[in-house]
Amino acid sequence: MKVGGIEQSSIESMVAQLRSIAAQTQDVGTGSALTGVSPIGSGAGAGPVNFGDVLKATLDQVNERQQAADKIGQQFAMGDDSVNISDVMIVGQKANISLQTAVQVRNRLVSAYQSIMSMTV
């Protein structure tokens, strides 16, 4: 069965891959992909979360993914036999998704800041 031009089995495969990656990146100690950040409603009492630290860690991760994509792309372009085109495309798309997510978060933060600044006290 096709959903929007994509086979159902392909969708299920992608969802399974995303769940697998999410499980791998999840920090065992806190139950969160970000170290020191408790899941919402966990009541774990991990203490206050420093927004600046979380933002910096996230931007560092986006930067690392961008650099990894550049590196593997250069390796492929130089004719490295250990790198195939599918690896290059996957790493590039992961880097792109990370960057787009960061841009959307930034847009939401700017919008929230503008809304707060326009409030009358």
Automatic annotation (TrEMBL):
<protein>
    <recommendedName>
        <fullName>Flagellar hook-basal body complex protein FliE</fullName>
    </recommendedName>
</protein>
<dbReference type="GO" id="GO:0009425">
    <property type="term" value="C:bacterial-type flagellum basal body"/>
</dbReference>
<dbReference type="GO" id="GO:0003774">
    <property type="term" value="F:cytoskeletal motor activity"/>
</dbReference>
<keyword id="KW-0969">Cilium</keyword>
<keyword id="KW-0975">Bacterial flagellum</keyword>
<dbReference type="Pfam" id="PF02049">
    <property type="entry name" value="FliE"/>
</dbReference>
<dbReference type="GO" id="GO:0005198">
    <property type="term" value="F:structural molecule activity"/>
</dbReference>
<keyword id="KW-0966">Cell projection</keyword>
<dbReference type="GO" id="GO:0071973">
    <property type="term" value="P:bacterial-type flagellum-dependent cell motility"/>
</dbReference>
<keyword id="KW-0282">Flagellum</keyword>
<comment type="similarity">
    <text>Belongs to the FliE family.</text>
</comment>
<dbReference type="InterPro" id="IPR001624">
    <property type="entry name" value="FliE"/>
</dbReference>
